[in-house]
Amino acid sequence: MATDRIVSADSHVNPPRDLWLRDCPAQFKDRAPRVESGPMGDFWVTDQQITGAIGLDSSAGRKPEDFKPTGLTYKEMRPGAYDPKARLEDMDVDGVDAEVLYFGGPVTQQAADPALRTYVVQRYNDWMVELSKAAPTRLVGLAHIPLLDLDEAQRELRRVAKMGLRGFHLDPFPDERGGKPLWDSAYEPFWSLVEETGLPMSFHIVGPRKANVTETFANPTPGIKETFIAIAPISICETVSTLIFTGILARHPKLRFVLVECGIGWIPYFLERMDQTFNKHRFWTKSVITEKPSTYWYRQGYATFIQDLAGVAERHRAGLRNIMWSTDYPHSDSTWPKSREALANHFKDVPADERALITGGNAAALYGLS
Amino acid sequence: MATDRIVSADSHVNPPRDLWLRDCPAQFKDRAPRVESGPMGDFWVTDQQITGAIGLDSSAGRKPEDFKPTGLTYKEMRPGAYDPKARLEDMDVDGVDAEVLYFGGPVTQQAADPALRTYVVQRYNDWMVELSKAAPTRLVGLAHIPLLDLDEAQRELRRVAKMGLRGFHLDPFPDERGGKPLWDSAYEPFWSLVEETGLPMSFHIVGPRKANVTETFANPTPGIKETFIAIAPISICETVSTLIFTGILARHPKLRFVLVECGIGWIPYFLERMDQTFNKHRFWTKSVITEKPSTYWYRQGYATFIQDLAGVAERHRAGLRNIMWSTDYPHSDSTWPKSREALANHFKDVPADERALITGGNAAALYGLS
Q1: Residue B155: CB partners within 8 Å, gap ≥ 6?
Q2: Which residue of B has its CA nearest to A222?
Q3: Which of A7, A66, A336, B146 is the most buried (most CB within 10 A)?
Q4: Bridge partner residues of A325 (DSSP)
Q5: Is the full-model pTM beyond 0.80?
Q6: What is the residue-averaged pLDDT of chain A?
């Protein structure tokens, strides 16, 4: 174990509270994301709208008894969420050598005004470059690429590739937020560009299809919130299926994608289900793919998990080279600061070489961590 | 193997084409379900609306190359779909001793007119009684109970229980068809009645949440139909989660439910995910359940599968007494007439006693097949 490099393939940031206010162009001064404090805690506010609460996203190190969906402040947050030095210290505490960094704050909100959206996204992506430079072998900052305007998406993808970011994330359900569904042919030039950059594209858990987190969490019926949390990860199966069956992966064989924070234990079942669907239905549906669906998965797909004993038990079916462990620091599902225990628990019956792939080797290969 | 009784826990009927026309009360004469034939094949028509096509539902025995979503006729259908004698012969061909029978035709359509709906449902349920009487140890007809009007649902449930039917099925997403979501407290008297009857209630696959099969199948983009088919079964996870987290199973410990045609390979993962959700989030959500979610599953939940090697490999995590094999005859996913091969393939590494539970023992116990 001591010789394996431990990589968390899914961790998070919460940007510095003044990220979008420093040197803010005059035109965005009133609308740029800022943290506003009140009796209900701190909230991100963008263009007069609440675009995020400080709560579950800064849970790492708290006992579940103390989790809060809202009501925390930036001061109560671990500085590792935004400060690279503090982050590296928290990683050391947890025995984690490198982390792949996903969004926090309002960056994934889809501001309707293209100019404001571009400002929010570019400032965030620039900050990810800066963060990555603080420790290039340990911090792998990923860009966010919004999909509301596909020309804009291509421009920003070219820009972040040039700046050296090693991957990026996309909304798995852009059609719910004013974009086109992923199967639309309008994405073809974008998929070609993704291949050209060689960067892996990630689809991070956002929630169950067509379920709004704010509305759901406002429903006072006991159990509704837990249902949302329980079913959110598996809902990404639609994205995998779309990428495979609509021929995107077949047409773009160098495209690599990552399902993030969606677990792995359902994947063996789902590969089998997709293969059966292909075997039984490809004639009347006039399928455009030529290989069985699982072939595309094993060649181009990846998935991250935090705690998933069922998935690790079935790692060979899920794909030994397709699955990656993570800590989700500093979110509520995080194993921090007890990731060593989580690892010991998950890998006690797993051969060392297989463990090394899942806990670091696969992520290192995917993101070119030398 | 020869001594085990083989029970398909999920098979289907297609009702006789004149089921709703025989002795039809005058008031329903023009609106009762009938089969109309045209150049595009046979369709069920109810109240001037198409409510079902003859196609994938009568695929058993066809090669996948010959599957058609529409365009078949009643004449081309295997009579086993509606005739008990022919059915028993088809079961003998396949080595199946007993079958649990689910819907076909327009019975699960939710006619807006309560009188028409009641006529359609009662005539169907009466026919299920008749079919079951043709071979009580081999044909287990289940009732359909619509949920648009919960008083009507209770009346019909009482009626079918009195007639001796051994179970019934419910729409897993009634809120998509004008009913209330399953978590609504309006269902409480209904759940109490289900417990009182002792009958297991089934939720049969209907499609992914908020995806309409007719609209989806009309989308000409290649791969959309396969995506619908691939993701439909796993979408039932929302129903399990709702039954567990909103406290329905905790308040009604004698209530037993069955997930039908939804596969089992994702269940080990999902139980773990629900338990983690409970462990991490029960404090701030003020959970109303007291046991970990998997406890309710193992005590009250069942699931059927057709082909699911990943699920059988993880049968102990899914629950040896909670999973049931099926043929899905005569639908497109059916293994008929090669169910013996499917069984051999799935159970070659499974001890005989465990196999016996999954391929018949569990269903026999659930439906009281002596």
Answers
A1: none
A2: B246
A3: A7
A4: A305
A5: yes
A6: 95
